[in-house]
Every structure is written in C-alpha cells, then in structure tokens.
C-alpha cells in the first residue's frame, strides 16, 4: 500500500511538473508578446528605469548621529522623494584602506543584498560620497539589546520578553542558514529594536557564505561569545550561531554574559579558557526550561549542540522553552511583542557620549580603490526599494491608467510631458529664488517622483 501511495504521489507530481512546463512554454509565447505591447509593460519599464536612477548623497536628507560603527558613524537619513526614513552607515574610505577592510565591507554589502527577512536588517541603497561608502539600512529606533538589558533598570528581562526576542533571533538565523550564511557575531549590541518592539539582526560584517559540504575555518567573533570550535580554529558550519543564541538567552535572563561578569577585567585568554573548559552557572532567575535550552545551546561539542543535528532550527523551535511562541504568527509579523518602545524616548547614548573618530592620515586613494568603490556603490536594492514605493503610497498614487483601460498621457510617447505645476506662491517666489539655482537638490516630493516617471517614458 505504501509503495502504491508513493507511486501515485510521484506520478501526480510528475504530471503537475509537466503541466507547469507546458504553461511556462505557453506564457513565454504569444501572451508575453501581448504583454510587451501593452501599456502595463510600458509602466513596468518606467518603474524599473526609475529604480535604476543614480543614487548620490543628494538623494537623502541627513539627520542626527545614531551611533558608531567599525569604520564610521551611523546617522538617520530620509529619502527626499518619498519621505522614507533609514539609517545610513558610513564607511570612511581612508579608514577602510588603512585597516584593509575592503573585503569585509564588500562582503557585508553583498550578503545584505541577498537577505530579505523581517528579522535581519535590509539594505535599501549603497552609494558613495567623496569620503565615504554608505549603506542605507532599515531604521531601528528602539535601541539595541545591550542598552535594554543594562540601562533600563535591573539588568535582564522577564521570561516572556526573553522568549520573544530569542524566537525572532532564531527565525533570523534560520533565514541566514537557508541561504548558507553563518552570522558569527551574535551579541546584544548587534540585535536592534524597531518602533514596534520587534527585533532584527544587524552588522553582518563577519557573516560569510559556507560552501555546500565544505565547512569553513576562521577565528572571528567577539570575546566571550565565540564558540569553542571557533576558538580552537576547527572547521565549522552553522554551529557558532546556535552557541551565540545560547549566550544571548543566558545574558537576557541573568543580566550578565555566561563566561564574564559585567565590566569584569579579565584577559582574553582567561575568557577563552572558561568557554572551552568551564560550565556556566545558573541562578534562580532561570526557570527549568530556560536553563535546559541554555545548556543545550551551550554544549561544548558542536555535534551534540541543539540546532546542529539533522533537524536544524526545527529542533530549536520545538524546544519546550518556546512552547508559548506561535512561530507561524511570528514569521508573519503579527505576534504582539511584550515590550513596545516609547516613541518619545531615545534608547541610546547621548550624541556627546559617542566617541568621535580621529582623522586618518597618510592614506592615499588610487585607481584600485576606485575599482572597489564601483563594485560597492550599486544604487538601490530592488525589493526594499519596491517596498518603499508601496509603503509611502507612491505606487498606489502613481500607478494609474487612463479611463476605460486606455493609456494615460505619460505612457503616450507622442504627447509632450506636462510642465511641473506651480502654485501662486511658487510663481511669486520663483523670481527671488533664481539666484539660488545652483543650490537646488534632487526631487523632494511624490509629485517629483511623478515627474520623473513622466519623463522616463519608454519608447518600445
């Protein structure tokens, strides 16, 4: 009976496969030709041409400094044309060259381009200025987990909050691992909260793609959070990330990391020895299932560690620690967080407390550097850009056609484009603003996006 059911299943899937191939062959024929000759294809080309417009610093308004990265500051920015807010991570060119960070910077940018998850920060734009390479990322106004663990009262969180964050981190790691990417730098500073209390994994500078069937080697990460196999310079796959999740669950619960007390002065070698040889201690803050998942994730042998067996992330999600988490709702973004940041609060250090970067001297940029910048500064990333057009309602406002399914004027190549409409105030001030023409910047409203669409009419 089992063999008969299996045979039927294979036959059905084979029939479905043949039908899909037949449908694909049909659609790429006459239907696609009809689509190419339609106004809908013209509109599609307009949007794609707008998407591919050059991106420069004038595309954005720059706001206050939010923090500091490895190669430069992070500030808030806003797309002039749509009003969408982002975080701009600036990588100073001379600092990158001095620290030989070109490969790391390009690797982070290329990995961010591939990742599209609600639990990992998204890259929307990559561009360059005279002095810096800029990554425009999801804006996370709620601060990082380190700030929330240690600067919001008694260190640590209640269990339901730990569960929620750990589950979202688990989903983020699962997405990265499905793309064969190991993150390698899980720590509270790299987990950011948004306005609604959801978290995302950030700073993918140490992430790397693992070739299938070829474990990698690399002694990278942050002291106190590196897995034993990383410290020992052994080959590994995704195992260091599950160790990192164990460290985070422990720290969110205990209000301290598992192998070093808060602000404890201890040498790197001593911390690494503790990680390799000592068992972490559990206080009465840990419930039975919280301790159980920490022990399972902080298993020294990666072959025995939770998440590293054939079940992978499914085994982690099935652990009794997550019994109150509905992962389907969580992955759909409809699970309510247990903590929502106050929109009036600033969850980070005062700007004056953020250490300033010193000027880099004795570094000259040459043609080789320009070749690297060309690979880096590729403009907007399709999926986040399209989300921006939808979220800011530009798409619904502008993706319109003529009455009764006819072409709108902006899709008629023979019709000259309309001049931008000016209000009475615009006409009065136009004369007085003439002397400032050289200071004009890029489009600043949805109307300007409309004009851009209008002037980008494809000739088919």
UniProtKB/TrEMBL annotation:
Ranges in a coiled coil: 261-288
Q: Which Gene3D superfamilies match?
A: Phosphorylase Kinase, domain 1, Regulator of G-protein Signalling 4, domain 2, Transferase(Phosphotransferase) domain 1
Cross-referenced Pfam families, in alphabetical order? Pkinase
Give the range the annotation lists for the signal sequence.
none
Example of a GO MF term:
rhodopsin kinase activity
UniProt keyword terms in alphabetical order: ATP-binding, Coiled coil, Kinase, Nucleotide-binding, Phosphoprotein, Serine/threonine-protein kinase, Transferase
Protein kinase domain location is 60-322
One GO term (biological process)? regulation of signal transduction
Name the enzyme group at the top EC level: transferase
Q: Which residues bind ATP?
A: 98
GO cellular component term of the entry, any: cytoplasm
User: Active site at which residues?
Assistant: 185
Looking up InterPro entries in the UniProt record yields: AGC-kinase_C, GPCR_kinase, Kinase-like_dom_sf, Prot_kinase_dom, Protein_kinase_ATP_BS, RGS_sf, RGS_subdomain_2, Ser/Thr_kinase_AS
- What highest taxon heads this organism's lineage? Eukaryota
What does the record give as EC number? 2.7.11.-
PANTHER family from the entry? G PROTEIN-COUPLED RECEPTOR KINASE (PTHR24355:SF26), G PROTEIN-COUPLED RECEPTOR KINASE/RIBOSOMAL PROTEIN S6 KINASE (PTHR24355)
Q: Which family does it belong to?
A: Belongs to the protein kinase superfamily. AGC Ser/Thr protein kinase family. GPRK subfamily.
- What this protein is called in its record is G protein-coupled receptor kinase
Identify the species of origin. Answer: Esox lucius
């Amino acid at each position: 009976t089992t063999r008969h059911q299996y045979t039927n299943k294979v036959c059905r899937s084979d029939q479905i496969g043949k039908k899909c191939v037949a449908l694909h062959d049909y659609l790429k024929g006459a239907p696609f030709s009809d689509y190419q000759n339609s106004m809908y294809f013209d509109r599609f080309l307009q949007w794609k041409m707008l998407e591919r417009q050059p991106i420069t610093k004038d595309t954005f308004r720059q706001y206050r400094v939010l923090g500091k990265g490895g190669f430069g500051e992070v500030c808030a920015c806003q797309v002039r044309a749509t009003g969408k807010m982002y975080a701009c991570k600036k990588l100073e060119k001379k600092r990158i060259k001095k620290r030989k960070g070109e490969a790391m910077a390009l690797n982070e940018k290329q990995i961010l381009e591939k990742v599209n998850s609600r639990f990992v920060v998204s890259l929307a734009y990559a561009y360059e200025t005279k002095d810096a390479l800029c990554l425009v990322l999801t804006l996370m106004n709620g601060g990082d987990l380190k700030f929330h663990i240690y600067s919001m009262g008694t260190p640590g969180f209640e269990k339901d909050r730990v569960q929620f964050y750990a589950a979202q981190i688990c989903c983020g790691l699962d997405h990265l691992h499905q793309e064969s990417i190991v993150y390698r730098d899980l720590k509270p500073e790299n987990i950011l909260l948004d306005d609604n209390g959801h978290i995302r994994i950030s700073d993918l500078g140490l992430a790397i793609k693992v070739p299938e069937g070829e474990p990698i080697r690399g002694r990278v990460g942050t002291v106190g959070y590196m897995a034993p196999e990383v410290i020992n310079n052994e080959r590994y796959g995704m195992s260091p990330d599950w160790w990192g999740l164990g460290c985070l669950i422990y720290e969110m619960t205990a209000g301290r990391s598992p192998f070093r007390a808060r602000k404890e002065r201890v040498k790197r070698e001593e911390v690494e020895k503790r990680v390799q040889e000592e068992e972490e201690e559990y206080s009465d803050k840990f419930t039975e299932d919280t301790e159980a998942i920490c022990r399972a994730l902080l298993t020294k042998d990666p072959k025995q560690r939770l998440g590293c067996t054939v079940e992978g992330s499914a085994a982690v999600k099935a652990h009794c620690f997550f019994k109150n988490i509905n992962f389907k709702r969580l992955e759909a973004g409809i699970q309510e967080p247990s903590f929502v940041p106050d929109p009036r609060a600033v969850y980070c250090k005062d700007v004056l407390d953020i250490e300033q970067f010193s000027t880099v001297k004795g570094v000259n940029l040459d043609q080789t550097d320009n070749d690297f910048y060309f690979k880096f500064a590729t403009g907007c990333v399709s999926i986040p850009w399209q989300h921006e057009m939808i979220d800011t309602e530009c798409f619904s406002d502008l993706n319109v056609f003529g009455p009764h399914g006819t072409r709108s004027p902006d899709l008629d190549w023979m019709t000259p484009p309309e001049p931008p409409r000016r209000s009475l105030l615009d006409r009065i001030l136009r004369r007085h603003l003439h002397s400032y023409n050289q200071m004009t910047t890029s489009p600043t409203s949805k109307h300007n996006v409309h004009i851009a669409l209008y002037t980008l009419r494809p000739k088919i």
